[in-house]
Design goal:
60s Ribosomal Protein L30, Chain: A, two-stranded antiparallel ribbon, alpha+beta, binds magnesium ion, about 30% helix, about 160 residues, five-stranded mixed β-sheet, globular, 5 helices
Length: about 160
């Protein structure tokens, strides 16, 4: 049995006039994340962790930001593309874990829904999908509410 591990990181700016979508869930908040796609920073970090585990580059290579095909894209659909690459190569996901750094809004009430939405698109049990949230103690860009970032790890197995 072979094992591979990958890590991913992403940050997006908070701006007005955009919806806030995290883990495929739309949250009520006066600010949203800016980006070419739906800017779901959680799913972006997760995809980079999966790609990283198999040395398949990063999401910028697979879904170039200047490609109109991905404008406004649902990041969960991009995640399905990444999972197809993983499966094509004979790998299965053991588990993934993520931590979102956001001062506001409070994410705790939405964590279970995020885990379910990600797990269903990945073909996993929610038990295999960790989503955690922390503030940045008002420090740095996340703490000043200029943006939201996310770190992710993924463990893959090939029987
Ligand atoms: Mg991104």
């Amino acid at each position: 049995m072979q094992l591979r591990i990958g890590n991913g990181y992403d940050i997006h700016r908070l701006v007005s006039g955009r919806p806030l979508i995290l883990g495929g869930i739309r949250l009520e908040h006066p600010l949203g994340l800016d980006g070419h796609s739906d800017a779901d920073v959680l799913v972006h970090a997760l995809m980079d962790a999966l790609l990283g585990a198999l040395s398949l580059g990063d999401i910028g290579q697979h879904f170039p930001p200047d490609d109109p095909q991905w404008k406004g894209a649902d990041s969960l659909v991009l995640l399905e593309h990444v999972m197809a690459l993983v499966r094509e190569r004979g790998w299965i996901v053991v588990n993934v874990d993520t931590v979102v750094i956001a001062e506001r809004p409070k994410l705790k009430p939405h964590i279970a829904a995020m885990r379910r939405s990600i797990a269903s698109r990945m073909g996993l049990d929610p038990d295999q999908v960790g989503v955690k949230a922390t503030t940045n103690e008002q420090l740095g860009p996340e703490g000043r509410e200029e943006g939201i970032s996310c770190h992710a790890v993924a463990l893959l197995q090939r029987p």
